[in-house]
Amino acid sequence: MTLSICVVGAGPRGTAVLERIAASAPLLAAGRPVDVHLVDPYPPGGGHVWQVDQPGHLLMNTVGADATLFTDDSVRCEGPAADGPSLYEWARSAAAGHPDASVRAEAAGMRPWSHPTRRFQGHYLAWFFERVRAGLAPEVRLHEHRTRAVSLTDLEDGRQLVALEDGSGPLTVDGVVLALGHTDVWMSPSQHGLAEFAARNGLFYGPPANPLDADLDAVPEGEPLLVSGLGMNFFDYMSLLTAGRGGRFVPVDGGLRYEPSGREPVFYAGSRRGVPYQARGDYGAMPPSFPARYFDDGAVARLRAAGPADFRRDAWPLIAKETAYVYYSTLLRERPEACAMDGFLTAFDALAWNDPAMAALVESAFPDAADRLDFHALDRPLDGMSFTDGDSPHDVVVGLLRTDLTKARNAPRDPLKRALTALGASRGRVRRLVAHGGLTGESHRRDLDGWFRGFAASLSSGPPVTRIAELLALADAGLVTFVGADMRVRADPDRRAFVAGSDGSFAAGGLLEAHLPPPDLRTTADPLLGRLRETGAARPYVIPTPDGPDYETGGLDVTASPFHVIDASGRPHPRRFAVGIPIESVHWGTAIGAKPRSNAVLLSQADAVARAALLAGITTEEHHAAR
């Protein structure tokens, strides 16, 4: 009798699950043939996000040596390891003979610390998939379905019936793994109002979306465009609407000059913080790693044991001190004259971050306030500015960008860039701390989702330094104007335009919301997830707060590993599993990819659900007999 598994989603996570099924099937399938059904309208490997035909000017914000899908021996998993090349190693070997000339050209110039194009990553993931398919054991048969799964129901014998959008099937399987990535969500009432206003007045409105899915052909050429959001999606839109419309960035005097095509819009851009994400440091080598001193694995274990934790009270002081230690140790190395006392680091080490004596120590050791690390100023750099002295928000933001560009290019010696690299590294330990209710619900809502997620991303997960240089070139060309912090956009019926600014001084015939909608089971437009929610077969994850309000997140509720889907009554389903983006908030940072030699969470989770799905259709007696 054949064992069958359906994997819904063929992007990196679904492909990793497939590889893990292939690795463990000979060991777990009790001698039975295994049929694997891979369901996704997009090609397997890259899936939707990493399509190989996307524009070559869209970049990863991960460096090539930090991307893999292979389970090296650092990955803690029960299935057999399957080592293989990282993206960079593939570029130096297999990609050199690739039939696509653009792949060969990019591979030839790649360094371990290069930021590859997204389509190059797509080719790597497609190669990985083909390698998995070619290496399948004879008893493992792969079936690809280039469509969407739209419903999932139980049969009387416990098997699962998966209905497909194209009318083929349905599939009868023993286990189902939901490995969907980002899915569309329904527009909110306010977004519907903006869309209707645009339709009535012949304007452009782009709701939150993957930039590759946005109808950018409808953005008018040469006209003002309000852009809300200055994170990573903003940089994608910036590239698609400039280089993607025929403009050119030309090197000149150590910087860039933009040569317009005349088809670009004129950007009026802002956000809550009012400034773009900071550039990643350009070290001319792999970014450094810093041993954890305060927020280390032991600290995470202690907080988990005593939990649930309050992030601001329990975790942030350790993260802040960790980051500040790297900052001040680098500053003392590069400019020792900035410090007015001996033994600063010893005194720093002895004090808690939130001890009033710590602030006094830093103030006395560094008389110049510009030398002190100021987290609030990093988070809200425009706070307190009245702009009454002739400077505009635009002028201030451009100045901050020029400073950021200088620091990023001098990252090996710059205290701030090195500190922010350490801050970014702390997020892996944050992931372990907050998983499955590691924080109270109120702290998760207020501190993690409401602050730290965006704060850490804006400082440590920004674009390659080239993107900041390009943004400055566009500002110099008059094609980008920054409107300031706390940007609010409204529809103005009298002017038949979208307007922003406290006095409505920025008006445009188009509005682009430049951010990705967060995964949310409550508002998902994905037919399968929506159907599971509507029928009570799945529920949003709720995080309790002792003696306080619970927090209903948008994440799909699952058990601890191997992540059985939990229904509305609280029962885990024995044959349904989920991994990756849909379970954000049960876990955190699920969009983070797999890094070699790092016990990558993506891969350990893929292994766990793959093995559980294999065992879902095997009786205990069969399993023991096979072993």
Describe this structure in words.
The protein is an alpha/beta fold and 627 residues long. The chain has three domains: 3-55 and 69-77 and 142-184 and 519-626, 3-Layer(bba) Sandwich (FAD/NAD(P)-binding domain); 189-277 and 464-513, FAD/NAD(P)-binding domain (3-Layer(bba) Sandwich), CATH 3.50.50; 297-460, no CATH class. The chain has 18 helices and 21 strands. It has helices at residues 12-28, 87-92, 101-109, 118-134, 189-201, 232-240, 297-306, 311-334, 344-350, 356-365, 375-379, 393-409, 415-434, 441-460, 465-476, 527-534, 601-616, 620-626, and strands at 3-8, 34-39, 140-145, 149-154, 160-164, 171-173, 175-178, 204-206, 224-228, 248-252, 255-259, 266-270, 480-484, 489-492, 497-500, 506-508, 510-513, 540-543, 551-556, 564-566, 572-578. The chain has a six-stranded mixed β-sheet, covered by helices on one side. A five-stranded parallel β-sheet has the order 8-17-9-12-13. α8 (311-334) packs antiparallel against α13 (415-434) and α12 (393-409) runs antiparallel to α15 (465-476). The chain is globular. The protein starts with a strand and ends with a helix. This is FAD/NAD(P)-binding protein. It holds the Pfam family NAD_binding_9. It comes from Actinomadura vinacea.
Going by helix content, strand content and strand pairing, the class is alpha/beta
Briefly note the CATH topology name of the largest domain: FAD/NAD(P)-binding domain
For the largest sheet, list the strands in their spatial order: 3-2-1-7-21-20
What is the percent of helical residues? 25-40%
DSSP E strands, number: 21
Query: Which residues form runs of ≥5 with pLDDT under 50?
Result: none
Q: Write down the overall mean pLDDT.
A: 95
Organism: Actinomadura vinacea
Protein name: FAD/NAD(P)-binding protein
InterPro entries: FAD/NAD-bd_sf, HpyO/CreE_NAD-binding, L-asp_N-monooxygenase_NS-form
Domain FAD-dependent urate hydroxylase HpyO/Asp monooxygenase CreE-like FAD/NAD(P)-binding: 7-182
